[in-house]
Amino acid sequence: xxxxxxxxxxxxxxxxxxxxxxxxxxxxxxxxxxxxxxxxxxxxxxxxxxxxxxxxxxxxxxxxxxxxxxxxxxxxxxxxxxx
Length: 83
Prior knowledge:
Order of helices and strands: HHH
Helix content: over 70%
Largest sheet: none
Number of domains: 1
Structural class: mainly alpha
């Protein structure tokens, strides 16, 4: 059964539209949405695996948002006001 699900997930990834190449935050957000779908439709035997995937996706998304915020602060700190 696990092998069947892994193959199904692999086919799903191959058939899915390509994620935006340059934006990691968009990709992480898409992965989080997919993880939520898997959790919502998981069979009882696979709920734990869906929870692990969901937690990982949430952490990745949160980390990227924090990094983006830090990067924005650093850039805005170095900007000079020109009159």
